[in-house]
């Protein structure tokens, strides 16, 4: 069934979606579904999320991820502070790979969010959260499981040459070099 997600071959590990739910009431904070045919509409997604939250709330709390089957989907979830983080896969998907993806996302968020993975920080740094999810799960395909690599790519580390101190210097220097190049061509051709 994993082949149904975004048309990938069955041997490529994929996720149907990822959820960050409010740990107190189970409402959606972040939800990204990669299989457009998984749920009919927003109402069906919300109902599914409530069933997942009900299972997560009934499970013992701890550092380990838990696995549950909800509506024939494999759900790997972990309660983190005031959040419930869930990676959803097809029923036949390997739960260890889904757990690895969940761990990579949560560990990257630990590196990226100033005060830990809590609801307030997720809201404050939502672009970082979404980029982290995209770095680990691209269209549902599990791409990266390295939290530090994900965090580096989200923060664009290595994008600015080491000799430069900032993006603004990089941009200003680029503009001057381009202007100098154009001017030398124009004056060089006029002579």
Automatic annotation (TrEMBL):
GO BP of this protein: intra-Golgi vesicle-mediated transport; intracellular protein transport; retrograde vesicle-mediated transport, Golgi to endoplasmic reticulum
Domain AP complex mu/sigma subunit residue range list: 19-156
Protein's membrane topology: Peripheral membrane protein
InterPro entries: AP_mu_sigma_su, Coatomer_zeta, Longin-like_dom_sf
UniProt subcellular location: Cytoplasm; Golgi apparatus membrane; Cytoplasmic vesicle, COPI-coated vesicle membrane
Domain of life where this protein originates: Eukaryota
GO CC entries: COPI vesicle coat; Golgi membrane
Pfam family, one: Clat_adaptor_s
Keywords: Cytoplasm, Cytoplasmic vesicle, ER-Golgi transport, Golgi apparatus, Membrane, Protein transport, Transport
Function, in words: The coatomer is a cytosolic protein complex that binds to dilysine motifs and reversibly associates with Golgi non-clathrin-coated vesicles, which further mediate biosynthetic protein transport from the ER, via the Golgi up to the trans Golgi network. Coatomer complex is required for budding from Golgi membranes, and is essential for the retrograde Golgi-to-ER transport of dilysine-tagged proteins. The zeta subunit may be involved in regulating the coat assembly and, hence, the rate of biosynthetic protein transport due to its association-dissociation properties with the coatomer complex.
Subunit description: Oligomeric complex that consists of at least the alpha, beta, beta', gamma, delta, epsilon and zeta subunits.
Family under the similarity heading: Belongs to the adaptor complexes small subunit family.
Name by which UniProt lists this protein: Coatomer subunit zeta
Species of provenance: Cafeteria roenbergensis (Marine flagellate)
Phylogenetic placement of the source organism: Eukaryota, Sar, Stramenopiles, Bigyra, Opalozoa
């Amino acid at each position: 069934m994993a082949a149904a997600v975004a048309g990938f071959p069955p041997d490529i590990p994929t996720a149907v979606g990822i959820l960050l739910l409010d740990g107190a009431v189970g409402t959606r904070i972040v939800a990204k579904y990669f299989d457009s045919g998984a749920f009919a509409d927003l109402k069906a997604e919300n109902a599914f999320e409530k069933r997942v939250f009900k299972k997560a709330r009934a499970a013992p709390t701890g550092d380990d991820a838990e696995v549950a089957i909800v509506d024939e989907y494999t759900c790997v979830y972990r309660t983190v502070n005031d959040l419930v983080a869930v990676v959803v896969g097809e029923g036949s998907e390997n739960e260890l790979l889904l757990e690895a993806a969940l761990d990579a996302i949560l560990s990257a968020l630990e590196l990226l969010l100033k005060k830990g993975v809590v609801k307030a920080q997720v809201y404050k740094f939502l672009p970082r959260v979404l980029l982290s999810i995209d770095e680990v799960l691209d269209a549902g395909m599990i791409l990266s499981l390295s939290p530090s690599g994900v965090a580096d790519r989200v923060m664009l580390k290595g994008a600015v040459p080491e000799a430069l101190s900032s993006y603004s210097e990089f941009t200003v220097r680029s503009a001057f070099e381009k202007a100098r190049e154009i001017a030398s061509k124009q004056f060089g051709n006029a002579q």
